[in-house]
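Fig. S4 source data, part A: sequence.
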Amino acid sequence: MKRLAGSAFAAALLVGCSTNVTPTQEPAYGSAIEALDVYYRSVPVSELPQGPEILEVDESKALTRILVASCNNEEEPDPALASLAAEDGDLFLFIGDNVYGDMDGRGYVNFDVELVELREAYDDLANMPEYQAALAAMPMLPMWDDHDFGLNDDGEGFPAHVLSERIFENFYHLNDTEVAERPGVYYSKMVGPEGQRTQIIMLDTRYFRGELMPTDEYGKTGKERYIDSTLPDQRMLGEAQWAWLEEELKKPADLRLLVSSIQVTPDDHGWESWDKLPAERDRLYTLLKETDAKGVVMLSGDRHTAFLYKDEDRGDYPYYELTASSLNQAFARDPVSTEYDSRQIGDGYTPGNYGVVDIDWDNKAIMLTIKSETGEDVHAVGFQFDEIEAG
């Protein structure tokens, strides 16, 4: 097939045109999206953003301090990320909206099939001093959310998902890993010796996610954008990722950090979260029980507010969740969030922030902490390993 330059070629494919057939011929591909995927796979690696080198995780050494953050505007200064970089941490989990590739400043950009804005956002991140400092300080594991996936609140229907996946994998040096061998960007890491093993499960809640159900009362508290779906075909992870997750949860571990870019526990707000696809969240809880996966602690981002939760009634033991968001994309004027969920611990914190997971292996204790952009403790919850039946 003749290849045209850049957007003209991709745009032609998107409207169902073929560049090497006459109007009386059958298209060369089954659909415009399939043709677009072929084009995206042909984009040379040299045209994709290249990120700085990332330190390798020492899988033989027990983790004792893990930093967690999300929602980073690469076009703005980021004091919270600078404070995170100054922490004495073993690992940094960058869990979504690491760039805002569908926005220019505060405004959304029109969808561009070449993902020009997304590519520029990654280039900006690569040159961001705070990000460079974090990478120099400790190893990092990344995951995406909607704004670095490519489109606000979108999922499997995003037409450029093949290209955004290639951008993600190239930028974070995942081209030679299992991540690049399958659709989606989910993966896991087992770190530490026997008796001190931390399993980090990075879930992809974008690539396979189906449609959400729009609210019937836009802006109303508790129904702000979405309501619980009643559709029979609900999709969050996709069948391949579900099968992979089942096998991961069967592996022996003393602590499991289940990382989801969107929140798992809450029920009472109308923004994106697992409860908007209730059949899928029930499937997650059922899988945790059926695999007898002990020691699960949930980490999430996305919300532009930091929260702590304790879910005591949907599992065989309490599920704690730390939501760390955002680094430098705070929207609320009041530092104390007006949102309150029945499983929430303390107030939500709206200014710039990041999270910390401290693990005391000697005393079998875990502390989840929300920190301000200057590194001060804001809220924290501690618990023993025995409470989550881990070891």
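Fig. S4 source data, part B ends here. The two ends are 58 Å apart (CA to CA).
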